[in-house]
C-alpha cells in the first residue's frame, strides 16, 4: 500500500499522530492543521452547514428521498470521511446530484412526493459505494500515478469548471421568475461580495451565512412587509416539531437497478479528484497522498447513507467555494458542521426552516458558490502551468466546458449520462486520444 505523502507538512503531521495537532491561529490563511478560536470555529462551521444545506436537501427532494435523512447521513458521512483521511483533507460530504437521473430511471419516480421504490434505489447506491471502494483500494495500493495519467491537471480543471458551469443554469433559474426575484438574488450576491471584501475582522470570513441572513431578511421585509413579492409561508415551519425521527429506509438489491446506478462511481471519482485537486491548489500543497483515503471515505459514507435511506454523497463543491472565499481550510470546521447536521437531522423544524428560504436568496448564494467552483479550474491550470498553446489541451477543455455548460446528455439504452458525466468522460477519453502515440506520430 502506498504511503507517499503530498508534502513535508503532511509527513510531519503523520509523525505526530494519526490526527494533526491543530494549532491556534487568529489571522491570515488558516491551513487544515490549524484552527480558529472556539467561537469562530463554531460560527465558521455553521457557515459550511449553510453552504451545503441547499444541495443536500434539494437533491433528495428531486429523487423522492427524505431530506432530514439525507441531512443526518451527510453529517455521519462527513465524520466517516474525516476519520478515514485522518483529519487532513478539508471537505464536507453532501447529497450528490450525479445520482438524480439514474435514480429516477431505475425507480420510475414521478417527480413529486415520496419515492415508492426508494429501497430499490438504495440498493443501487450501495453498489456505487462498493465499486467506488474497490477503486479506492486500487489507488491506495498502487498510488495515483495511473489516475494522474488518466486525469492530468488539464482534465481535472476541465471537470471542475464543467461542474460549476453545469450548475450555473440552476442558479440563474432561481433568480429569473420575475424582476423582483432577480433583484433579490443580485442584492444577495452584492451583500456577499461586500462582506467578503470590506467587512471588518472575523465578519469577513462569514460572507455566505451573512449573505443568506441578509437576503432572507430583505426578502421578508419587502415581500411579507410591503407585499411587493410572494410572501414567505411560515405555516409549515410553525407546525413542524422541534425533535423527531426521520424516516429511515433499508435497501433492497435488484440486479438491473444496481447495473444502472453503479457506474455513477466513476463520476464520483472524477468529481472527488477534481475537488481534492482544487483544495490542493487553494492551500498550496499537494493532497495526492490522501486521494485513496478520500475515495475510501466517500465510498464508505455512501454505503452508510444508502443503508439508512439517504442519498449517495460526495465532497461538496459548495464548501470548496466557501473555503475559496474565506481562506479558512481548518478541517475542524467540517467536524463542527457534521455534528450540527447530525443534530439537525433529528429536527423537522430545521428542515422546514431551510425549505422556507426563498428561491431568489438560494439563487443568489448559488451564483456566487457555483461561480467560485468554475473559477477554481483557472487556479488548477495556472498552478500546474497547463499549456493552452497545446491544441490537445485547448480542444479537451473546450469540449468539456461546452458539454458541461450545455448539459449534453448521452443515452445508452436505459443508462443516461448527464452533462457532468459527459464532460468528465469526454475530457478523459478525448485527452487520451489527442495525446496518444498515434497523434504524436502524426504530428
Concise overview:
The chain has 443 residues and is mainly alpha-helical.
Structural summary, described in words:
The protein is globular. β5 (410-412) and β6 form a beta hairpin. Residues 1-15 have low confidence and may be disordered. It is 67% helix and 4% strand. The chain is mainly alpha-helical. The protein contains 20 helices and six strands. The protein has one domain (26-232, 244-439). The chain has helices at residues 8-15, 38-63, 67-84, 100-107, 118-142, 145-150, 153-174, 179-198, 207-225, 235-239, 255-261, 264-283, 291-308, 317-326, 332-345, 348-355, 359-383, 391-405, 419-434, 437-442; strands spanning 23-24, 34-35, 93-95, 313-315, 410-412, 415-417. α3 (67-84) packs antiparallel against α13. The chain crosses the membrane at residues 69-86, 92-111, 118-144, 150-171, 183-202, 208-228, 328-346, 352-376, 388-406, 412-434.
Q: Mind sketching the topology for me?
A:
Blueprint: H1 8-15, E1 23-24, E2 34-35, H2 38-63, H3 67-84, E3 93-95, H4 100-107, H5 118-142, H6 145-150, H7 153-174, H8 179-198, H9 207-225, H10 235-239, H11 255-261, H12 264-283, H13 291-308, E4 313-315, H14 317-326, H15 332-345, H16 348-355, H17 359-383, H18 391-405, E5 410-412, E6 415-417, H19 419-434, H20 437-442
Parallel strand pairs: 1-2
Antiparallel strand pairs: 3-4, 5-6
Helix pairs in contact: 2-3, 2-9, 2-15, 3-13, 3-15, 4-5, 4-11, 5-11, 5-12, 5-13, 7-12, 7-17, 7-18, 7-19, 8-9, 8-17, 9-17, 12-14, 12-17, 12-19, 14-17, 18-19
Amino acid at each position: 500500500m502506498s504511503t507517499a505523502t503530498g508534502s513535508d507538512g503532511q509527513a510531519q503531521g503523520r509523525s505526530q499522530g494519526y490526527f494533526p495537532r491543530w494549532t491556534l491561529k487568529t489571522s491570515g490563511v488558516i491551513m487544515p492543521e490549524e484552527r480558529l478560536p472556539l467561537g469562530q470555529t463554531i460560527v465558521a462551521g455553521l457557515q459550511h452547514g449553510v453552504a451545503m444545506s441547499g444541495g443536500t436537501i434539494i437533491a433528495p427532494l428531486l429523487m423522492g428521498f427524505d431530506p432530514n435523512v439525507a441531512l443526518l447521513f451527510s453529517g455521519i458521512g462527513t465524520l466517516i470521511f474525516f476519520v478515514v483521511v485522518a483529519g487532513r483533507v478539508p471537505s464536507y460530504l453532501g447529497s450528490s446530484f450525479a445520482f438524480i437521473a439514474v435514480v429516477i430511471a431505475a425507480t420510475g419516480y414521478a417527480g413529486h412526493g415520496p419515492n415508492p421504490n426508494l429501497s430499490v434505489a438504495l440498493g443501487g447506491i450501495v453498489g456505487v459505494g462498493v465499486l467506488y471502494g474497490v477503486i479506492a483500494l486500487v489507488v491506495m495500493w498502487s498510488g495515483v500515478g495511473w489516475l494522474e495519467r488518466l486525469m492530468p491537471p488539464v482534465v481535472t480543471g476541465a471537470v471542475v469548471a464543467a461542474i460549476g458551469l453545469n450548475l450555473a443554469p440552476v442558479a440563474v433559474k432561481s433568480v429569473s421568475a420575475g424582476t423582483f426575484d432577480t433583484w433579490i438574488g443580485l442584492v444577495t450576491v452584492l451583500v456577499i461580495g461586500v462582506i467578503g471584501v470590506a467587512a471588518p475582522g472575523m465578519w469577513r470570513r462569514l460572507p455566505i451565512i451573512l449573505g443568506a441572513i441578509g437576503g432572507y431578511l430583505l426578502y421578508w421585509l419587502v415581500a411579507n412587509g410591503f407585499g411587493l413579492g410572494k410572501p414567505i409561508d411560515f405555516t409549515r415551519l410553525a407546525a413542524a416539531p422541534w425533535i423527531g425521527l426521520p424516516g429511515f429506509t433499508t435497501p433492497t438489491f435488484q440486479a438491473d437497478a444496481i447495473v444502472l446506478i453503479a457506474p455513477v462511481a466513476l463520476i464520483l471519482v472524477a468529481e472527488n479528484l477534481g475537488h481534492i485537486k482544487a483544495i490542493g491548489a487553494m492551500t498550496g500543497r499537494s493532497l495526492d497522498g490522501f486521494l485513496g483515503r478520500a475515495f475510501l471515505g466517500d465510498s464508505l459514507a455512501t454505503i452508510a447513507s444508502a443503508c439508512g435511506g439517504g442519498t449517495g454523497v460526495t465532497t461538496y463543491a459548495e464548501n470548496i467555494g466557501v473555503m475559496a472565499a474565506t481562506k479558512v481550510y481548518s478541517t475542524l470546521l467540517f467536524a463542527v458542521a457534521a455534528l450540527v447536521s447530525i443534530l439537525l437531522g433529528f429536527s423537522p423544524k430545521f428542515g422546514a426552516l431551510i425549505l422556507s428560504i426563498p428561491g431568489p436568496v438560494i439563487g443568489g448564494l448559488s451564483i456566487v458558490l457555483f461561480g467560485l467552483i468554475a473559477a477554481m479550474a483557472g487556479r488548477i491550470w495556472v498552478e500546474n502551468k497547463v499549456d493552452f498553446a497545446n491544441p490537445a489541451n485547448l480542444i479537451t477543455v473546450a469540449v468539456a466546458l461546452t458539454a458541461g455548460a450545455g448539459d449534453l446528455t448521452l443515452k445508452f439504452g436505459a443508462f443516461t449520462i448527464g452533462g457532468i458525466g459527459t464532460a468528465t468522460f469526454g475530457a478523459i477519453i478525448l485527452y487520451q486520444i489527442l495525446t496518444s502515440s498515434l497523434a504524436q506520430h502524426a504530428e
